[in-house]
Specification:
Radius of gyration: 17 Å
CATH class: Alpha Beta
Number of helices: 8
Structural class: alpha/beta
CATH architecture: 3-Layer(aba) Sandwich
Strand order of the largest sheet: 1-2-3-5-4-6-7
Shape: globular
Length: 206
């Protein structure tokens, strides 16, 4: 990937976070100038980040993060990540990449195709869209602006670590998230394991 110009911090504001289960934590939300894709991504700084902070790249999921959809594991992953990062110190990058980068309407169209039997990746392909359109150049810019060049990555997705390394970020370790299964998302999670090598134990997805 080609070298991108540096991003700069635009603002930083303290925000108390409150979750539906009663968990609460104070965070610093950081916005940026100069991100490569022009999107309004936000860094959520939690705890006291050390020299090797725990970092998660969390792609926006309106249905899961806001409405609690059981068709994915995004909402529980977000909740888990905030607490784990706050305990250790680190950063959650909230990236405006709905539907693995295809957008909300396309994601809902893909849901309809999944109801007809396609898996999440085949549904994207049937719509003429890539399986995963996400590019983490802006994420690398955000991390560098925050002074983070070495991290432990909280993720089951090997592509995130590979892209960050290509973009000049040292990923010391990839730390798996929990497994959050529902009756509605088991096929989705199995597809992530089988097609894009996510580190989720298949035995728990039976």
């Amino acid at each position: 990937m080609s070298e991108q110009p540096a991003a700069t911090q635009r603002s930083r504001v303290r925000v108390p976070l409150r979750f539906h289960d009663g968990y609460s934590v104070d965070a610093a939300l950081v916005t940026f100038h100069g991100l490569a894709d022009g999107q309004e991504h936000v860094a959520v700084v939690l705890g006291e980040p050390g020299p090797v902070p725990l970092v998660r790249l969390h792609s926006e999921c309106l249905t899961g993060d806001v409405f609690g959809s059981a068709r994915c594991d995004c909402g529980p992953q977000l909740r888990e990540a905030v607490e784990r990062i706050a305990e250790r110190g680190g950063v959650l990058l909230y990236l405006r990449q709905e539907g693995r980068g295809i957008g909300l309407y396309n994601k809902l169209d893909a849901y309809a195709l999944q109801d007809d039997g396609l898996d999440t990746y085949a549904a994207n392909a049937a719509l003429g869209l890539p399986e995963d359109a996400r590019d983490y150049t802006a994420a690398a810019q955000m991390l560098k602006s925050l002074g983070v060049d070495t991290l432990d990555l909280l993720s089951n997705n090997p592509d995130k670590a590979a892209q960050l390394r290509d973009l000049g970020i040292s990923v010391r370790d990839r730390v798996p998230t929990g497994v959050f299964t529902t009756a509605h998302n088991v096929r989705y999670l199995r597809a992530k394991v089988l097609q894009t090598q996510h580190t989720l134990p298949l035995a728990e997805l039976a």
